Amino acid sequence: NQSGGCRTVVLAEGMTRAPVVTLPSLAEAADLKKFCREHFDEVKAAFESTTRFGKLIDLKVTLAGRKIYLRFRAFTADAMGMNMVTKGVDKCLALLQSKYPKLEVLALSGNYCTDKKPSAINWVEGRGKSVIAEATIKKDIVEKVLKTDVERLVQLNIDKNYIGSAMAGSVGGFNAQAANAVAAIFLATGQDPAQVVESSTCLTSMTKNADGDLEISVTMPSIEVGTVGGGTGLPAQHGCLDLIGCSGSNKKDRSEEH
Q1: In 3D, which of 84, 83, 85, 105 has the Cα closest to residue 94?
Q2: CB of 170 within 8 A of CB of 118?
Q3: N or C: which end of the chain has fewer CB within 10 A?
Q4: Angle at Cα 36 formed by Cα 33 and Cα 41, nearest 5°?
Q5: Between helices 40-48 and 26-38, what is the axis angle to 10°?
Q6: CA distances, 225 to each of 119, 166, 193 (Å)
Q7: DSSP 3-state helix, strand, coil percentages of the chain (rounded to 5)?
Q8: Nearest 10 degrees: CA dihedral of 198, 200, 202, 206?
Q9: DSSP code of residue 248
Q10: What does each of the 258 residues of the chain score in pLDDT, given as a tens digit?
Q11: Over the range 200-229, which residues count as b (16 or more CB within 10 Å of their CB) and which as e?
Q12: In the chain, count of helices (H) and strands (E)?
C-alpha cells in the first residue's frame, strides 16, 4: 500500500478433467484421437448439454500405448468447477462409447488433469485461473520496511528462488513460500485446501527499474478458486468473500468471456 498497490491480469481460465480410457488396438486408439479433433463440436455439444454455465474450451488427447488420456478444459463461470466439468466429461464419454463400443473407461480421472498434485502440465498449460500480479516497491520502502536494499533482493531472488529451486528439481516452486498465503486465503474464503498443492505454484520475478525501485511480479498458472459452491457458502467464509467484494455470482454476463 505504501508504494501504490499492485496490478493483476487473468491470462486464461479453464478447469480440467482428464479420464483415461482404453481400446483393444493401437489403431483404434489413434482413430479416437483423430475423432476428437475432427468432431470437437459434437463433443462440445455433449458436454454443454449437462450445464447452463460450463463451456468446453478445448480437448487435449494423448496416448500411452492403447491407453488414451483426454484432458477436457472448460470455462466454469464463478464456480471452481470440478463437479461441473466431471459431469460434462461423463456425458462426453458416453458419446465416445456410442462411437467406439469397445471403449473401456478405466477412470474418470487419469491424473492427467492434474488435480491436487504437482505437475508440469499444470505449470505449462495452466488449470483454473492463470494469473500474473505485479507491483513497484519504492527503494526507500524496501530499506525502511524490509531492512535491505533492492540490489540484494534481486540477487537473492536469483540465488534462492531460481537457482536453489532448479537445484532441487522443483516444478513451479520458484518462489518463497507462496503456499503460505494461498493456504490462508483458501481457508478463509471456502476454497478446497487440498488444491493449495497446484494453486501455489508460482514464479517470482524481481528487477531494479530505472528509478532504482523494485519491480516484483508473481506468475501463477493454476489458481483453482470459485465464489459459489463448496465451502464458499459457509457463514465465516462467505463473510470473508463479502469483505473483498467477491461473494456469490458475478452479476455481469460472463458466458462469452471464454
Answers
A1: 105
A2: no
A3: N
A4: 170
A5: 80
A6: 18, 28, 10
A7: 40, 25, 35
A8: 180
A9: S
A10: 889 999 999 999 999 999 999 999 999 999 999 999 999 999 999 999 999 999 999 999 999 999 999 999 999 999 999 999 999 999 999 999 999 999 999 999 999 999 999 999 999 999 999 999 999 999 999 999 999 999 999 999 999 999 999 999 999 999 999 999 999 999 999 999 999 999 999 999 999 999 999 999 999 999 999 999 999 999 999 999 999 999 999 866 555 555
A11: bbbbbbbeeeeeebbbbbbbbbbbbbbbbb
A12: 10, 9
Grid coordinates belonging to 257: 468471456
Nine cell digits for residue 20: 483415461
The pTM for the full model equals 0.92
Nearest CA to 16 among 50, 57, 52?
Answer: 57
- The cell numbers describing 233, all together, are 457458502
C-alpha cell at 160: 534462492
For residue 21, CA distances in Å to 30, 197, 246, 258 come to: 12, 26, 38, 27
- Contact 56/44 with Cβ under 8 angstroms? yes
Q: Which three cell numbers stand for residue 18?
A: 482428464
HSE of 177, CA atoms in CB hemisphere, 13 A: 3
